[in-house]
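Chapter review. Work through the record for CopG family transcriptional regulator before attempting the end-of-chapter questions.
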Amino acid sequence: MNGMSEPPGQSSIMSRATWPKPAAAADTRQTERDNLNELITAAEAEHGPLKAEEVQALRDQLHQARREQGRSDVT
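Structure tokens for CopG family transcriptional regulator:
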């Protein structure tokens, strides 16, 4: 017995598929940020830290690619 009101094998935690769209989108963005931070950490460990100018150039490329794809969530 799990000590909760749900039958055994069921949980009160909603699956990601049943989340409201804004919550699912926010979770997806957070996962993307987490993955990007892991890549940055690995790259910096291998090649040294990025300079502010390099980061800005990459941001500019990302923003341009998003504009070309018609995404409106560019920040």
